[in-house]
Amino acid sequence: MTDARGNARPNGEAPARHAPGAPCRVSLMVHGPDAAQEFYGALFGWEFRPGPRQLGCCVRALLDGREVAGIGVLPPDRHRPAAWTPYFPSDDVDASAAAVRSCGGTIGVGPLDSADAGRLAIGSDPCGAVFGIVRAPAPPVTAATGTPGTPVWNELTTYEAAGTAKFYRSVLGYEEGPPATAGPDRVTLHLDGRPVAGVRGVGDALPRDRGPHWTTYFAVTDTDEAADRVRDLGGLVVEPARDGDRGRVATVTDPEGARFALVQQAR
């Protein structure tokens, strides 16, 4: 693990910042795409259409005809776990990818062009959490935020919040604000005064088999019922439904082990 504290360019200059914004897309990489479509279609009511060919076998998840997420296939020769990945917007993906490298992160895919998805790159922060950077060719037609079945929040679980948040501030131009959720070692990334993502440090409590990772929160009408539905469909409830600052939340996995959260937002 590379420590995220004090990241900067070798010459001491701050990396360029490029059109920061809230995570604008989420994607799921799995070994069994057909089973994933069956699970998420039954859980959230998603429908599916073919997606960008440049990214391999990929489908778009739609809700009421509007894009919600993407599902891609993990290479068969790589034993990576299934996982959800948030994508952050940038008006210059190449410069943002260079900033990731100069601040101690890595770029594993791209930058590359996709006719459907725009220019994008996939990398990891200095502690190993995977995320994407994307410049979409046009404003995406996405389902209204807050509609049940849509992503409404992303939170990073890592070793230590402050140093890791500094990496995302340097690379993507975010501001640090007060935590959106109460608790020790939490940072919220802000843009123009509004929260866009959370960072939570858990130290040695981070599971060794998962490492630092992003969790996507999906809106549901009733968290308890949705968690029961996850079980019925072959998934697992990792953390039972509980009330918090973001609403009533449960952490679950799909049948392949990809972790995500269900949230019934406070009215």
From TrEMBL:
<protein>
    <recommendedName>
        <fullName>VOC domain-containing protein</fullName>
    </recommendedName>
</protein>
<dbReference type="Pfam" id="PF18029">
    <property type="entry name" value="Glyoxalase_6"/>
</dbReference>
<dbReference type="InterPro" id="IPR052164">
    <property type="entry name" value="Anthracycline_SecMetBiosynth"/>
</dbReference>
<feature type="region of interest" description="Disordered">
    <location>
        <begin position="1"/>
        <end position="21"/>
    </location>
</feature>
<dbReference type="InterPro" id="IPR041581">
    <property type="entry name" value="Glyoxalase_6"/>
</dbReference>
<feature type="domain" description="VOC">
    <location>
        <begin position="22"/>
        <end position="136"/>
    </location>
</feature>
<dbReference type="InterPro" id="IPR037523">
    <property type="entry name" value="VOC_core"/>
</dbReference>
<feature type="domain" description="VOC">
    <location>
        <begin position="150"/>
        <end position="265"/>
    </location>
</feature>
<dbReference type="InterPro" id="IPR029068">
    <property type="entry name" value="Glyas_Bleomycin-R_OHBP_Dase"/>
</dbReference>
